[in-house]
Amino acid sequence: MNNRPFLAAFVGVFVLLVAARSVTSQCPVPALTSGLQSPGKIIFSTKGSLLVTESGTGVNTGRISIIDPNNGTRRTLITGLPAGFSPPNNDLAGPSGLAMHGRTLYVEISLGDAVIAGPLPNSVIPNPNPSSPIFSSVLAIHFSASVEMKTNGFTLSAADQVALKTGATVDLSNGGGDKITVELVADFPDYLPEPRPGLPNAVRQSNPFGLALDGDHLYVAEASGNTVRSVDLQTGNFSVLTNFAPLPNNRGFGPPVVEAVPDSIHLVGNQLLVTLLSGFPFPLGNAQVRAVDPVTGNSTPFITGLTSAIDVLPDGGGGFFTLEYSADMLAGLPGRLSHLSSPTSAPTVSSCLITPTSMALDDRKGEMYVTQIGTGQIVRLGGLIH
């Protein structure tokens, strides 16, 4: 089954305002930043900037933006990252997950156009001419604190992508004396064989869509493969840490179960928290957050009762925030942010977000930053924690 993390963008703009332990919706609320190019994941850098992945505007126009969390000013860290139009809806897919340690930023590259639509319904086959040789990979970008604070951007060329594929380290200069280096640290298969009757060359595409870092290991949420991969940063070797079983379908139509579709991952304490979006027809209340042991791969339910789960974060005080892309994808309902004082408590909910994809929390200020892919915005939500 071809599971895409997102549907077409909904019409309209919704945002939310959360106060203390209760939630009050006021729509709309001005965005912190607008004009982003299909923003996906967001994290804080080690210097306190916001870093955001964007799919871009066309083939190989993916970029990472640096956002000032105080005033929303945007600068480009790097553009020209791999991106391509993926089946079945020709959605532009490029950079996805982010993780940072010291002055190294790890960047996931998602499926792009490594596959194309096959001749049978809901089938895909290898693309003989993909737009990039490094789709379904993880890059490491090394840059100084001074570059982060002042750069106006670097560009990765098509030749640079080829060089990375061969294992070379690419040094980039922006003409102003600033330099960064880029390495390929993990190169996943673009697809795995999945032959079907009448289509022996059918495949299942890769779609790395979430990234977490723990010491010398990266953990990758593989949305299409329904797995978490473990990557050894010293060698680039990777293996499957855990597989996620299908989820029950309570829609009353479609198959009895749907695919899990893991789409974000975070290291919280000694466990990995993974959100499961769920596949079409996107059951109501059957998406969840799973806790995964990074040593054994054992997986257990952590937060249940969600719909279209897209992200999860601790609140710094024992509770958790969950982010849902939509309260009901088929009905076109807005997304929602929920706060739970514990994994099993009843949540306080605000449902005034439009196509949210990721969140970053400043727990010192009690402010949340949420990317909205359909509106090209980052929304800042204040007063979350007291």
Write the layout of secondary structure elements.
Blueprint: E1 17-19, E2 22-24, E3 39-44, E4 50-54, E5 62-67, E6 74-81, E7 84-86, E8 91-93, E9 95-101, E10 104-109, E11 115-117, E12 124-126, E13 137-142, H1 145-150, E14 154-155, H2 158-165, E15 170-173, E16 179-187, E17 191-193, E18 203-205, E19 208-214, E20 217-222, E21 227-232, E22 238-243, E23 247-248, E24 257-258, E25 262-268, E26 271-276, E27 287-292, E28 299-306, E29 309-314, E30 320-324, E31 335-340, E32 348-353, E33 356-362, E34 367-372, E35 377-381
Parallel strand pairs: 6-14
Antiparallel strand pairs: 1-2, 3-4, 4-5, 5-6, 7-8, 9-10, 10-13, 11-12, 13-16, 15-16, 17-18, 19-20, 20-21, 21-22, 23-24, 25-26, 26-27, 27-28, 29-30, 30-31, 31-32, 33-34, 34-35
Structural features:
mainly beta, Neuraminidase, 35 strands
Describe the structure.
Strand 31 (335-340) and strand 32 (348-353) form a beta hairpin. The model is unreliable at 1-26 (pLDDT under 50). It is built from 2 helices and 35 strands. The strands form 11 sheets. The chain has a 5-stranded mixed β-sheet, with no helix packed on it. A 5-stranded antiparallel β-sheet has the order 9-10-13-16-15, covered by helices on one side. The N and C termini lie far apart (44 Å). The chain has 386 residues and is mainly beta. It has one domain: Neuraminidase (6 Propeller).
